[in-house]
User: What shape does this take?
Amino acid sequence: MSRVGSKPIKIPSGVKITRDNSLITVEGPKGVLSREISKEIDIELDKDEVLVKRLSDDKRGRSLHGLSRTLIANMIIGVNEGFEKALEIVGVGYRGEVDGDILRLAIGFSRPAEYRIAKGVSIKVEKLVNMVVSGIDKELVGKVAADIRSLKKPEPYKGKGIRYAGEHIRRKVGKSAGA
Assistant: This one.
């Protein structure tokens, strides 16, 4: 039995869950999220909790059991509290700014790199070098943060680039003056 999938999901006050065949819709104070759940998974809705059960005990059914429970739990957390991912820009002269729905980053290229911000995600830049990506969809917030990081990954010699807040970069020793 899946340890993750067998746990019931508590529904906080102010969050409403509806089910239409395999489509799960979660409404909360921050917005609405919908997701298609596999037909191999059965979902029982009570007043204050959701139970996720699998219909078959084969490998695919066991895999989808925990996944489906986690996806539904993330939808509930997202519409109730939201998700955030923090990024840092490290390097002399490196900075970022938000202009409407475009994020402009001066990260050592001949012209600023531009990133179009996806709908459902907001980006705040603080002190020109700290960014916070936030939204209600955990998957989308993580993807946007990963896309921004991939514009200039931190390099191992000086550590310059865009990194997640608190991320440790393994540093390499540079060239040394020979004998």
Summary: Residues 59-80 form the longest helix (22 residues).
